[in-house]
Write a structure and sequence with these properties.
Amino acid/polyamine transporter I, mainly alpha, L-lysine transmembrane transporter activity, 70% helix, L-arginine transmembrane transporter activity
């Protein structure tokens, strides 16, 4: 067997696009309807550009750590150690929530594809959620994202078909002067008039979540020859493909039904073989995307568990030391006041351990939690709105902004030494000296915080 040398640029693009494009693409026509055509296209482009910048900032921040060790947690502990666990908790909850929404969507859509005689909707939904374990569990136990490149290709094929279905229905509608669309599913078109401030803010949260890529650090870590030039190229290609698909699907879907469009566009089409195939492929797509989102969820959970465990062990040692002899502690290297930030900085160069036992234990605990919540919850839209307004904004804007503002164009010798130590060949790259990119990073932080508050408010208080 040939030695694994890293992921190719092509497989990295495939995994990036597949991670980004999920079920959110099907509500983008509804976002266009809410925003109006001009504003909707602008928001899609604006969010795509900012997400792309955030992904490049993540790639740049990975250069200050040993190759393959960069995660949201490890970068936090060399920039803002006091916030490391908090940020990882937010990332975990975002990924965990998205995976719950995928399972809920599976239970909602598959009964429309195939119905069992004598079964009620709730029973069929439960059956389809549980049967998805046949694919979800084995794929979620894969240790490297690059091992999922073939499932990613299958998922991308599903995306292509769904996009083709939306395009074809739009072409048929236009070519027949919209006579192929039932009158109750056909509304007026709005070029510039949005439907209100709150609806626009709510759909912005959907768009942010649609662009979110929580696996960027893993993709960069597995990339063969991960230079900043290659990282920027992969990000540019991936985001360009994604933006083209998002805008074209959003416009095609909206211009098929107009303001009569409601929610998931696949539910607007007639129940023929082509639509049913599209719905089945949608579920295949989200099931195959599940392990890509599950990967950072597991990593973040392990990071949190590792820090909490170490803090507890050190706390117990401190108590034992103090209780045995106040004058002569058993562990003199432990200070009398434990500072979690100091502790995290001290462990910054060590990899967070994940043994095989821990890997499988954490995986099964999280999978059990995903399926339990998916069975208990039935509001796909609410889950998606909340995780998009919080975790999606955090991953896309706020965290990359914090990293870029701290690490780029820095006068701190320690930061410069880290770059020279781990990425000497990249130390002269203009990205690491760019004050413009540093200021853009600050803008991402401010913009992300504003967007989080507004989107969360609009999602919860309709």
């Amino acid at each position: 067997m040939p030695e694994y040398t890293g992921a190719t640029a092509l497989s990295s693009v495939v995994n990036t696009v597949n991670t980004i494009i999920g079920s959110g693409i099907l509500v983008l026509p509804y976002a266009i309807r809410t925003d109006g055509i001009l504003l909707g296209v602008f928001v899609l482009l604006f969010a795509g550009i900012l997400n792309g910048i955030g992904m490049v900032l993540q790639g740049a921040s990975s250069k200050f750590l040993p190759r393959g060790s960069a995660t949201f947690f490890t970068v936090c502990r060399i920039t803002y150690p006091n916030l490391s666990v908090l940020f990882d908790l937010a990332i975990f909850l975002q990924c965990f929530g998205v995976n719950i929404s995928y399972l809920v969507l599976t239970g909602d859509i598959l009964p429309l594809v195939y119905t069992f005689d004598g079964w009620d909707t709730k029973s069929m939904s439960l059956f389809y959620i549980l049967i998805s374990t046949v694919l979800v569990v084995p794929l979620s136990l894969t240790k490297k994202l690059d091992n999922l490149r073939y499932t990613s290709i299958v998922a991308l094929t599903s995306i292509v078909y769904i996009c083709f279905l939306i395009y074809c229905n739009f072409i048929i509608a236009v070519s027949t002067d919209y006579k192929s669309i039932p009158q109750d599913k056909l509304g007026d078109f709005s070029l510039i008039k949005p439907q209100g401030f709150k609806p626009v803010c709510k759909t912005f949260g959907i768009i942010v979540l649609a662009y979110t890529c929580p696996t960027q650090f893993s993709i960069v870590g597995e990339l063969r020859n991960p230079t900043m030039k290659r990282i920027a190229k992969i990000t540019t290609i991936s985001m360009t493909i994604t933006a083209i698909l998002f805008i074209s699907v959003g416009l095609s879907g909206y211009l098929t039904f107009g303001n009569a469009l409601e929610g998931n566009i696949l539910l607007m089409y007639k129940n023929d073989i082509f639509t049913q195939t599209g719905r089945a492929l949608l579920i295949l797509m989200v099931i195959l995307s599940f392990p890509l989102i599950f990967h950072p969820s597991r990593v973040s959970f392990n990071n949190i568990y590792h820090v909490m465990t170490k803090k507890w062990v050190d706390y117990q040692r401190k108590r034992t030391s103090s209780g045995t002899d106040d004058r002569s502690p058993l562990l003199p290297h432990l200070s009398s006041s434990f500072d979690s930030a100091d502790y995290i900085v001290k462990m910054e160069d060590e990899d967070v351990p994940l043994s095989n036992l821990a890997f499988y234990t954490i995986s099964f605990v999280l999978l059990f939690g995903n399926y339990t919540f998916a069975i208990l919850l039935n509001s796909f839209e609410l889950i998606l709105a909340i995780v998009g307004s919080t975790g999606g904004v955090l991953i896309s804007f706020i965290l990359p902004g914090f990293y870029g503002y701290k690490l780029l164009a820095s006068d701190d010798d320690e930061i410069s030494n880290r770059l020279n130590k781990y990425s000497l060949e990249e130390s002269d790259n203009p990205i690491f000296k760019s004050k413009l990119l540093k200021n853009i990073s600050l803008f991402l932080i401010i913009w992300g915080l504003i967007a989080m508050v507004i989107c969360l408010y609009s999602s919860i208080f309709e």
